[in-house]
Design goal:
Elements lengths: L1 H39 L21 E5 L2 E2 L4 E4 L6 E6 L8 E10 L10 E7 L5 E4 L7 E8 L13 E8 L16 E4 L9 E8 L2 E7 L7 E6 L2 E2 L5 E7 L6 E11 L6 H5 L8 E2 L23 H36 L1
Antiparallel strand pairs: 1-4, 2-3, 3-16, 4-15, 5-11, 5-16, 6-8, 6-15, 8-9, 9-10, 11-12, 12-13, 14-17
Helix pairs in contact: 1-3
The structure holds 2-acetamido-2-deoxy-beta-D-glucopyranose (NAG) and calcium ion.
Length: about 350
Amino acid sequence: MRVSLRGCLNKMGNFRAFLNITLVFLVFELCLVCCDITDGNTEHLKREHSLTKPYQGVGAQWDFSGSTLVTSSYVRLTPDERSKQGSIWNIVPCYLKDWEMHVQFKVHGSGKKNLHGDGIAIWYTKERLHPGPVFSNNAHFYGLAVFIDTYSNDDATDRSFPYISAMVNNGSVSYDHGKDGRSSELGGCSAEIRNREHDTYLAIRYSKGRLTIMVDVDDRNEWKECIDIGGVRLPTGYFFGASAATGDLSDNHDIISMKLYQLMVEHTPEEENLDWTKIEPSVSLLKSPKDNIDDPTGNFRGTPLTGWKVFLLLLCALLGIVVCAVVGAVVFQKRQERNKRFY
Ligand SMILES: *[C@@H]1O[C@H](CO)[C@@H](O)[C@H](O)[C@H]1NC(C)=O
Ligand SMILES: [Ca+2]
């Protein structure tokens, strides 16, 4: 009798170990599934600020101006011809505090090395459809500009082109086209984006005062950091746009897509209560612009653990605990019953 009781208890022990392992796996799988949902990020895509193939019905959300030509597979800001200027502008102002813009683009043409230009600019500005000399847009702009500059206007330059750079302006500074904007740039990097067989991408992330620009131009499906600086202040209520220009030299400047994602980031109540539309575009440069990368005011590196993710993780944990409790209770009850039978 005693022996068989111990045998039974041993079996119960094995069964519990098995159950425990199963449970751990179950909870693990559950968390994986939960996490997958947010990693896809698709639920944060903001259609009203995005431009995607085949561009049907986007006329309600985007203005196309100048030489811009819309086909079903690309939006061509300029053809590979001299003295063309084209732009596209989102009609809907953006009131998101934290966002990430993914731009899929293609710059291509028949020009040989260094005989092509001028490039594309991506904008987040107060004004829209305001023509000027900076990649066909206004030089005294308010807001953020990211330049994909394919032609080196400054002969003395030591950097290799195409060159990607960023600038924040409050209307007081003029982009110096002759110097490729060097005096006003916040940072930049060279990127071989022209006449590539594969697609090229640029990502602009603005969150908690941190501006991060990443490129994916080598067809490896991974972002490479180009610019990452803190202390950047941009208001809400500005407009996204893209523009391009050709001069004596030219290229096809194509936008394939612009996708805006909302980033789920917590803000303090004080931050929430501010009127974000009143913010003056500025950058607090603690050191020289390029050394500004370790500014502690922004903490937005890598994949953020967004509010949504935290919620899902907590939900997973809670589900795990509930499942554990229920199974534990059932096992306990079964065991009590068996024990009763033996005594
Ligand atoms: C605009 O920027 C310039 C230079 O960065 C600065 O001197 C000026 O104070 C700014 N103006 C406002 C209104 O913030
Ligand atoms: Ca240039």
